[in-house]
Amino acid sequence: MPQLNPNPWFFIMIISWLTLSLIIQPKLLSFVSTNPPSNKTTTIPSTTPWTWPWT
């Protein structure tokens, strides 16, 4: 059963992971986000209690 022989597939997996880790990932991480988070302070909305007509 050739699928149990790890020789060629293990090498392909290692090369794939090294390519992803060393070449593709730094290129992807170098992009600047197009919508950076803003430094606005969050305002808490003023809430008023609900007045129930039957109480």
From TrEMBL:
It comes from the Eukaryota. It is found in: Mitochondrion membrane. One of its GO terms (biological process) is proton motive force-driven ATP synthesis. Coiled coil: none annotated. This is ATP synthase complex subunit 8. It comes from Poodytes punctatus. Keywords: ATP synthesis, CF(0), Hydrogen ion transport, Ion transport, Membrane, Mitochondrion, Transmembrane, Transmembrane helix, Transport. It is a single-pass membrane protein. One of its GO terms (cellular component) is mitochondrial membrane. The chain crosses the membrane at residues 6-24.
